[in-house]
Amino acid sequence: MTDDLQQLYRSHFGQLVASLTRLTGDLALAEDSIQDAFVKATDRWADGETPAHALAWLRTTARNGAIDHMRRTASLSKRLPEVAYMEEVTRTQTNAGTAAHDDASHLDDDMLRLIFTCCHPALHIEARVALCLNTVCGLRTEEIARAFIVTDSTMSQRLWRAKRKIRDAGIHYKVPQNHELADRLDAVLAAIYLIFNEGWLASGGSIGQRVSLAEEALRLGRLLTSLMPEDSESHALLALMLIQHSRRDARFDATGQLVLLRNQNRSLWDQGNIHEGLQLVRAVFHAGQGNGRYALMAAIACVHASAASANTTDWNEIATLYEHLMQLDPSAVVALNYAVAIGERDGPDAGLAHVNQLAESATMQRYYLFHSTEAEFLRRLGETDKARAAYSRALELVDNNVEREFLTRQLQSLPQ
Amino acid sequence: MQYALLIHESEAHWDSMSEAEQSEIMAGYGSFSQHLAESGQILGGERLQPSDTATTVRVRDGKVALTDGPFTETKEQLGGFFLIEAQDLDEATAIAAKIPTATYGCVEVRPIWLMGD
Questions:
Q1: CB B66 to CB A121 under 8 A?
Q2: CB B79, CB B66: distance < 8 Å
Q3: Do B90 and A161 touch (CB under 8 A)?
Q4: Looking at chain A, which residue has its C-alpha nearest residue B93?
Q5: CB B91 within 8 A of CB A169
Q6: A48 three-state secondary structure
Q7: What three-state secondary structure class fits A385?
Q8: ipTM, interface predicted TM-score of the complex
Q9: If residue B108 lies in a helix (H) or strand (E), which one and from where to where?
């Protein structure tokens, strides 16, 4: 593929699939037809025949390919009305001289349908994430596999299975109705945030040729806020990601090792990201929408971003925000972050007392972050032996390399 | 008396069969159901799509939770079934969530294999 085409693929693949899926009602067929169109374009471009309107050419070629496919397949009789409709659309647009007209008016709806279909809650979260990257962001299977450190065949199996479920289980290509919208949006936001977090955790050390998942998540976040400008949680998620993303250059030292928030060089934080994030959060809170899950997380990120140093952080505000967040999301990670905020506000013994209250839960016992949080408080209290035991337990449970290295260093830095 | 005959098999085993072997079994189903239809003993029956098209529905604290995939716990047993007509998976899972048992057990929603597809 030429650079031009490569760029078109990354910027417009999702849009092209979204429009063609509306016409065909078949996501897999739409994707295959768009991909074929890009292959044909590669040949044509190589022959020196670059059409004036590349995007319109791709759209028309893909649509004709899809019509041909539908004519050929055994299920044609069932689909005759669709084929007739598509032929009609193609004819009208050819007469009008442009294929862009029809799609411009439908584009936003089409993209929303595509996102909601790829993020349907009946699909496993891993499948949602893979589909979003593959179909909405135009990433290739191999690129997604590399980003998630799985084999190409595992990833292509995951995508194939998800697409089969969409087709065979009757997941329709539509924007959910009002009464289902809140739950369905949660599934979309969760997928986008998981893409961001995956990029966040994996970004240490050997990034190599891997695509930036954080950048893809930001792109999806921006897309969603432009498609659903009235949804405050989408804005809050974008703000949260922007503020976390602002710390990307400060999170690792020169040797690629993780640097904790409180030890980061704050002059490396991207003030442009922070400014944009703060503006978004302010707008959300001004609109009286500050009680959502992502709004609270974004507000916590804002408190950190606004502090000139770790010591001047408003831990009281952070603890209060976590207390609200606990009501909405009583998960292990929120409970532990709440304990950390208490420890910073009231001292390590208060933090440790809070962690000890959580110790009975079996989920906590299996969670590395529980043990590393406990270890950190014990270390500060000078309980070296107990801290060593807790770090060791955390190391047995952690599955991320960057965090493993960090915990190993913490363990080694304990006085003998 | 009426009875439900619940058919279990290993999907991997089915997938590993040759086309000829699969056709032989399908032909067997054909003559089985024809035989039962002639004796007036068949009340209904469908082939299901593979288990990885399944969605499991639970309602806890009034909130509907969907899980991708079939029901796999061994602590609970099959207690009944409904065959329903729904527009799409969203409508099917919404109906499933209204089944009383969904609030303490779960309901697996599995698409029917439409013959001729």
A1: yes
A2: no
A3: no
A4: A122
A5: no
A6: coil
A7: helix
A8: 0.85
A9: strand B107-109
Asked whether the CA dihedral B53, B58, B63, B67 is positive or negative, the reply is: negative
Domain residue ranges in chain A: 1-104, 119-225
Dig out the tokens for A236 from the structure.
């809050």
Q: Is residue A213 within 8 Å of residue A190, measured between CB atoms?
A: no
Nearest CA in chain A to B63: A183
Write out the two tokens for A399. 């599955």
**Percent over 70 (pLDDT), chain A:** 89
Which member of A124, A127, A171 has the closest CB to residue B89? A171
Question: Are the beta carbons of A122 and B93 separated by less than 8 Å?
Answer: yes
Chain B residue at shortest CA distance from A166: B53
Domain layout of chain B by residue ranges:
1-45, 51-109
Q: What is the pLDDT of residue B2?
A: 87
Q: Do B89 and A172 touch (CB under 8 A)?
A: yes
Q: Would the CB atoms of A170 and B93 count as touching at under 8 Å? A: no
How does pLDDT run across B56-100, given as a tens digit for each residue?
Answer: 999 998 999 999 998 877 788 888 999 999 999 999 999 999 999
Task: Please state, in angstroms and rounded to a whole number, the distance separating the CA atoms of residues B51 and B28.
Answer: 22
Best mutation target among A78, A168, A180 (most B Cβ atoms within 10 Å) is: A168
pTM: 0.83
A72 contact partners, CB below 8 Å, separation of at least 6: none
How many contacts, defined by CB atoms under 8 Å, are there between A and B? 46
CA A158 – CA A145 distance, rounded (Å): 10
